[in-house]
Design brief:
2 copies of one chain form a homodimer. By secondary structure, chain A is of the alpha+beta class. Chain A is built from 18 helices and 28 strands. The first copy, chain A, has 3 domains: about 150 residues, Creatinase/prolidase N-terminal domain (Creatine Amidinohydrolase, Chain A, domain 1), CATH 3.40.350; about 140 residues, 3-Layer(aba) Sandwich (Creatine Amidinohydrolase, Chain A, domain 1); about 290 residues, Alpha-Beta Complex (Creatine Amidinohydrolase), CATH 3.90.230. In chain A, about 35% of the residues lie in helices and about 20% in strands. In chain A, the strands form 8 sheets. The first copy, chain A, has a 6-stranded mixed beta sheet with strand order 4-3-2-1-5-6. In chain A, a hairpin with a 3-residue loop joins strand 2 and strand 3. The longest helix of chain A is centred in the middle third of the chain and has 28 residues. The first copy, chain A, is globular. Chains A and B meet through strand 21, helix 16 and strand 27 of A and strand 21, helix 16, strand 27 and strand 28 of B.
Chain lengths: ~600, ~600
C-alpha cells in the first residue's frame, strides 16, 4: 500500500507542477462539509491510503503531510507506513496546524490549490487571512486530482422518503416559519443552507446518499416567500414532490445551485454559514450580496428535540439497549467457547439490531475491537484484518442504529475473562466518569466546556486522559454526530459554544486507551432535562436514554467513592427495571445478576 | 439618605435638561478603569447613595437606574431605599443590561452623556455599536455632574517608592525588553498603557493613590526606543526620578497625556487596550494612528510570578496565615465572653497584621460580618453600623495585607457557638468545594471556565449556588484582584479566557449565602504548579499558599465523601506543619486540636 500511495503522490506532484500549484489541499469532505462522506468524495483516502474518517492531506513539491486527530494517531501511523507522507498529530505539542505549516512553507506569490467545493468557506477564509501578507493566489475552481482516480465510485443518488408527522412531530410549514422568524431577527432576506442534515430536518425527508447518514445531496435557498430545494432528479418521486409542493417548497436540479445563485433575484442580505458552506458557493454569494456569516438557524432548532421526537427516542433507545445487552451476554458466555472474530461478532450484532421493529440502517459502521485494537479509538475490523476473540481481556463495541424512532449510539466494554488490576482501575475510572457526568446538576447557561471536566477528573486525577471529546449531539433519524452543542474542554476562542438546553441529547463517552494493550469506552446517551428552579436559577440535569449494564466483572470498588458506588447501583437498578420486561427465564436471571448492587 | 439622593438626582436631571443630554451614565471608575477608585472618583456613590464597589448609575429624564451584581443585591436594596432609584440586578432573569436598557429607551437622535475619562473604551464602543441605528449623539468631553458635588475630595497624590530588586526579581530594563518583544510580535511601534497596576509592575514602583491599592495615577507611552511615564509632579522624588531615568524612562506631567498624544511623533500602529483605557484617550489615539486593541502585554507578564516573587509570596502568606489563625482562635475563645462587635474585631485583626514585618497596608478593607450580615457578600461594618458579636452563629472575615513580600487575601468563617444542621451542611459543602478545587489536576491548556464547576458541584448538587466567581488573580504588592485569569463558569463569548499557567496565583473561594440568616466563604490562595508530564500532556495542579485551619466545629462528615475527608485531613496536616513553628505552649495545643484528623 505504502508504495502505491508514494506513486500516487508523485503523480499528483507532477500534475501540480503542470498547473503551477505549489501546495494542494485535500480535506475529508463532500460539497456540504459533511462529517462523513460517501465514497465518491473519499479523495483524501484514495491519495494517502489513510482511511480514518477525519484528516487532511497537504501535498507540496517536496513533502506531503497528513493531519489527523488523536483518535487516529495509531491507525494513521500504520496506514501511512512506507508512503513517505509525514503524519502531523493535531494538537500535540509543537505540531503545526495546517495554517501554521503553510504560513511557514509558502513563499511570496506562490499558489495554493484545492477543489473549492470540498473546502469549507471558514477554512478558505482563514487561509486567506493567514497568508494575506504573502500575495498568495488561490486556485479553487477545479478538482485537479480527479484524473488520477480512474475507478472513482459514482456520485451517490438515493430516493428521498418522507418522515411522517407522528414521527417528526412538526410540519415543514411550522419549521419554515420558525426559520423565517430567525431570518427576520437577523435582518436577512435570504438563507442558503448547504448542510445536509439541516435540510433533511427542515423538509421532513430522509435519503441514503451517505453511508449510515440518511441524507440526500442537496442545497436549499430560502426567501421570505419561497423555498427552493436543489436535489438530484432521481431522488424525487411523485409522493415526495407532492409533499414538498404542499409545504411551499419547489425543486431544482442539484447541479444548478451555482447558476441559480448567479442569476436569481436577491434583495437584502443573505445568511450563509461559512462553517457549513463550501468556499466556492460562499464566494459566489459574497459577490452578489451582503453576506451574514452565522451558524444556520436550523442547527439549534434541530438539536432541541420536540416532545414527539423525545418520546420516540426514549422507546428507540430502550429497544436498542435490549439488543446490545443480549449481545453482550452472549459475548461473555461464548468467548473462548465458540470461534469468533471481531468482524463476525459485529455482523451478529448488526443482524440482531436489524430485527428491531423500525430498523432502517446502522447509524455508523460498528466498531468491534478486541484487546489492543480497541486502543485505536475508531478502529474498524475489516475482511482482511479481523482478530480472533478469546476468553480474556477487554472487548469494546461502539455501535448504533437508524430507526423510524431515532438514531442510537452506544459503547460498552466487557471483560471476556481475566483482566489485570490496571485494566480494572481504568475501567472503573471510566465508569465513574460516565456516571458522574450523567448525574451532574448544573445551572442553566452552562456549555459543554463547563461540564467536560466532571468526566475527565477521575482520569486526570491519575494523570490519565482520553484524547477525544466527552460528548456530541445526535440527530433524530439523522447523523450520529450533530451540533451545535458538544462536551469538550479545549478552549477555542473562535468557536461559539452552545448552551446546553432542555430537549437536547448528548453522548457521555469517556474512555481510556493504552497503546498495544487495551481500550475502554463507556458511552451512554443522555437527554438534557430541567431540574429544580429556585432563587439561584434554573438547574439542569441529564436523564439516561441508554440502559445497558456496565460489566461488574471489570469493576473494582476500591477505586470508587461511596457516591460512585451509589450512582452505579442506582443506574443498574434503572437498567433492570427498564429491561426486565424484555427478558425472561434464564436471561432475566442473568440480567438480575449483571445489574446487582455492589 | 434616600431623600437627599432623590434631590441630587433631581438636580442632575435639571442640569442634563440644560445640556440637552437625555441619558447620563456614571460608572464606578477613575480614568484608568481601576476596579477600586479613590474618593475623588466616587461620583456614582455620591449621586446614588449606593456605596458598593461595583455599580453603574444611569440617569434619564424619567427614571434613574442602578446596575450592580449579585454580591451587592442586598446591600444596594437597603442603600437605595427611598431614593427612587430603580435597582437592576445584573444577570438575573429578565433584567436588561445597561446596553439593552438604553437600546429600549433611547429614541432616534437623542444624546447620551458621560465623562469620557471614566468610561472604558470597550464600553463606549459597545454603546456606539448598540445604538448605531438610532443616530445617537455622544457627549463625553466633560464631567457634567461635577458641579453638584460641592465637598468633593481632592484628587489623590502620593509618593512613588521603588520596589528593590531582591523583592521584585526583575529589573525594569528586562521588563521593558519583554514588553517590546510582544510589541514586535504584534507589529506595533507604540504602546499606550493606562492600567495603573501594569504601570507600577513595569517600572518597579508603587504608591498609594487608591486606598489599599499601591498604585499612582499615571499613564505610560512606549516606543521601541523611548518610555514616557505621565505622573503627578508630587509623586516623584530625586530617588525615583533617578531610578526611572537609569531604566530609560522619562517623566511628564500626568495631565499632559492628551496633549502629548495629540502632538507626539507617531509612526506605525499603536497598541491600546480598549478594556483598560478610557474612551477619551482611545478616541484620541484612533484619530492619530491605526490602533491595535488587545489586552496589555504587561497583563500576562505580571500575572505569571517570577521565582523571587513566588518565594516572597510563600513566606508572606505563611506569616499572614499565622496572624489570622491566632485571631480566629481568639474569636472562638472570647465570643460571648468579651464584648465585641464587627468593626472592633476587624480593627483588632488589622492591628495584628500591622505587626507583621514588612507590613505596608491592608490589601482591602477587612470584611468582618456576623450572622446575616455575612450574607451580604461584600458587606462592611461601619462606625454607624457594627453588629455586636455573641457566642453563636457564624462569623466571616475576609481580609488581607500589603507587605513588602506580596499581597494577601484570605477568608474564613468560624462557628462561634451553636450552628444549625443546615448551616453545617452549607459550611461542609463549601469546605469540600474549596479543597476539591485546590486538589484538582488538570491538563495544561485549561482556563478557569473548565475548572469552576469542581468548586461549584458540591453546591449545585444540592441546588445551591454562590453568586460570585470562584477565583481571581492577585497582584504582587499590587491590586488584590488582577487578571487576566479567573475562575468562573459563565460563558461570555466576547471575553478572552486566559490559560492557567505555572506561577500564576489565584483565589479559591466558594461560598454559600442565605439572606437574613448566614453567609459562609472559605478562601485559600493557591499557586499554579506543574505536575507530571506524560504522553497525555503536561498536568497542572495547585499548591496552597494559605494555611489557616478550617473550623472543624462546623464540619459534619456525613456530608463528605471519604476523599473529601482525606483532603481535609491532609490540608490540616500541612497547616499544622507550616504553622507549628510560630506557636508555642497552649496555643500550639490549640493548633494541634484545630487541625486534628476527623
Amino acid at each position: 500500500m505504502g508504495n502505491a500511495v508514494k506513486q500516487r503522490i508523485g503523480a499528483l506532484q507532477k500534475l501540480l507542477a503542470q498547473e503551477n500549484i505549489d501546495f494542494y489541499i485535500v480535506p475529508t469532505a463532500d460539497y456540504h462539509s459533511s462529517e462523513y462522506v460517501s465514497d465518491y468524495f473519499k479523495m483524501r483516502a484514495f491519495l494517502s491510503g489513510f482511511t480514518g474518517s477525519a484528516g487532511t492531506l497537504v501535498v507540496g513539491n517536496e513533502e506531503a503531510g497528513l493531519w489527523t486527530d488523536g483518535r487516529y494517531f495509531v491507525q494513521a501511523e500504520k496506514e501511512l507506513e512506507g508512503s513517505g507522507i509525514v503524519l502531523y498529530r493535531m494538537e500535540e505539542e509543537g505540531v503545526p496546524t495546517i495554517k501554521e505549516y503553510l504560513e511557514k512553507h509558502v513563499t511570496e506569490g506562490q499558489t495554493i490549490g484545492f477543489d473549492g467545493r470540498v473546502v469549507s468557506a471558514s477554512f478558505g477564509k482563514e487561509l486567506e487571512e493567514e497568508l494575506a501578507d504573502k500575495n498568495v493566489k488561490f486556485v479553487y475552481d477545479r478538482d485537479v486530482a480527479a484524473q488520477l482516480w480512474k475507478d472513482r465510485p459514482a456520485m451517490p443518488m438515493s430516493r428521498l422518503w418522507i418522515v411522517p408527522e407522528e414521527s417528526c412531530g412538526m410540519r415543514v410549514e411550522e419549521k419554515l416559519s420558525k426559520v423565517r422568524e430567525k431570518m427576520t431577527e437577523e435582518g436577512v432576506e435570504h438563507l442558503l443552507i448547504a448542510k445536509l442534515d439541516d435540510i433533511m430536518w427542515l423538509y421532513n425527508v430522509r435519503a441514503n446518499d451517505v453511508e449510515h447518514n440518511p441524507v440526500a445531496l442537496s442545497y436549499t435557498f430560502l426567501s421570505m416567500d419561497a423555498a427552493v430545494l436543489f436535489i438530484q432528479d432521481a431522488a424525487l418521486t411523485e409522493e415526495t414532490k407532492a409533499h414538498l409542493e404542499k409545504s411551499g417548497v419547489s425543486c431544482q436540479k442539484y447541479t444548478d445551485i451555482s447558476d441559480y445563485l448567479k442569476n436569481c433575484a436577491i434583495k437584502g442580505k443573505v445568511w450563509c454559514s461559512g462553517a457549513d458552506s463550501n468556499y466556492m458557493l460562499y464566494k459566489l454569494v459574497q459577490s452578489r450580496a451582503e453576506l451574514v456569516d452565522k451558524e444556520n438557524p436550523t442547527e439549534l432548532l434541530k438539536a432541541v428535540k420536540n416532545p414527539v421526537e423525545l418520546e420516540n427516542i426514549r422507546r428507540c433507545y430502550l429497544e436498542d439497549s435490549v439488543v446490545l445487552t443480549k449481545f453482550l451476554f452472549w459475548m461473555k458466555e461464548n468467548a473462548g467457547k465458540v470461534p469468533m472474530d471481531e468482524l463476525g461478532v459485529a455482523k451478529k450484532l448488526d443482524a440482531m439490531r436489524a430485527e428491531i421493529p423500525g430498523f432502517l440502517d446502522l447509524s455508523f459502521e460498528t466498531i468491534s475491537a478486541y484487546k489492543a485494537n480497541a486502543a485505536m479509538a475508531h478502529y474498524s475490523a475489516t475482511q482482511e484484518h479481523s482478530d480472533t476473540i478469546g476468553a480474556d481481556g477487554f472487548y469494546l463495541v461502539d455501535s448504533g442504529g437508524q430507526y423510524e424512532g431515532g438514531t442510537t449510539d452506544v459503547t460498552r466494554t466487557v471483560a471476556l475473562g481475566a483482566v489485570t488490576d490496571e485494566m480494572k482501575l481504568h475501567f472503573t475510572k471510566v465508569a465513574c466518569a460516565m456516571l458522574r457526568l450523567a448525574d451532574t446538576k448544573f445551572l442553566s447557561g452552562c456549555t459543554g466546556r463547563n461540564l467536560d471536566i466532571i468526566a475527565r477528573e477521575p482520569l486526570w486525577d491519575c494523570a490519565l486522559d482520553y484524547k477525544h471529546g466527552t460528548g456530541h449531539g445526535i440527530g433524530y433519524i439523522l447523523n450520529v454526530h450533530e451540533g451545535p452543542h458538544r462536551l469538550s474542554w479545549q478552549y477555542k476562542p473562535e468557536k461559539k459554544e452552545a448552551v446546553l438546553e432542555e430537549g437536547m441529547i448528548v453522548s457521555d463517552e469517556p474512555g481510556m486507551y493504552v497503546q498495544d494493550s487495551h481500550g475502554i469506552r463507556t458511552e451512554n446517551i443522555v437527554e438534557i432535562v430541567k431540574e429544580s428552579k429556585n432563587a439561584y436559577g434554573q438547574f439542569m440535569g441529564f436523564r439516561h436514554l441508554t440502559y445497558v449494564p456496565i460489566d461488574l466483572d471489570a469493576i473494582d470498588i476500591q477505586y470508587m467513592e461511596p457516591s460512585d458506588i451509589r450512582k452505579l447501583n442506582a443506574y443498574h437498578r434503572q437498567v433492570f427495571e427498564k429491561l426486565a420486561p424484555y427478558f425472561a427465564g434464564k436471561e432475566l436471571e442473568k440480567l438480575k445478576y449483571a445489574t446487582r448492587a455492589v
